[in-house]
Amino acid sequence: xxxxxxMRKGGSQDEVIPIVDRNIISERNTDDAAGDTDICNSAAxxxxxxxxxxxxxxxxxxxxxxxxxxxxxxxxAVIFRLGxxxxxxxxxxxxxxIIPCIDQCSIIDLRTVSFDVPPQEILxxxxxxxxxxxxxxxxxxxxxxxVCNVADYSKxxxxxxxxxxxxxxxxxxxxxxxADRENIAxxxxxxxxxxxxxxxxxxxxxxxxDVRLPQNLQRAMAAEAEATREARAKxxxxxxxxxxARALKEASDIISSSPAALQxxxxxxLATISSEKNSTIVFPIPIDLLSSFCxxxxx
Length: 299
Prior knowledge:
Blueprint: H1 2-10, H2 22-58, H3 64-67, E1 68-71, E2 75-81, E3 84-85, E4 94-97, E5 103-109, E6 113-123, E7 129-140, H4 143-148, H5 153-169, H6 174-179, H7 181-196, E8 201-212, H8 215-256, H9 259-275, H10 287-298
Antiparallel strand pairs: 1-4, 2-3, 2-5, 6-7, 7-8
Helix pairs in contact: 5-7
């Protein structure tokens, strides 16, 4: 009040007003609350751990059946103590000790797992409805990520594989789907592996098993293929007849230039017929002999 009266009476005077940032205050309050929460959590954890150990001691040796865990060479165990991951990451293989009251153990299998993608009704790029199924092989690369980053890694991988199969095959034509399975499988593997990488899952192999076509489309394709084969057979038969006629023409030209060659051909035909042990042999009479007889009669 005195300052305001002095300013009114004596003129303007400089006054310094402190400015406090509210964000800084809120951050300090948040840090203080987090620190208090951590202290409370650590104290509660210590108390619960002591109580659990006392219960284990009181129920010894029966409690050892629940405290000692054994996992195989191909398995890893992720231990949560009071909701937090235990230091050191995944445990195993071999023998380890847990406190049943405050520890929760999740065992992850590291072996390769395979599953069938259910048949998916897919509309191809050229508007053909087909049913396609596939098989996927995967393994767990990072057990911590498989447990902490996804609720059910197996179910999530199956659903993702089915969705990716529909998305990829929807951009292909029917001919590409039937003839280019290797590239389709490579694209499927790449997309599924990229999506499951944050989950600690490694996709080893993806294969398209079967492509089922509608019955009417199968009949149409079979009729088309049969017509194509018949047309090709007719063309091949015509080409064969053309080549045979050309060869016969060349043979007739050669035989007509030499009368003795025709007689030798007659003898060769007789030898071929006699080798088959036929009871009747047809002997060809040269036309030249008949023409000579006809000339004598005319004279």
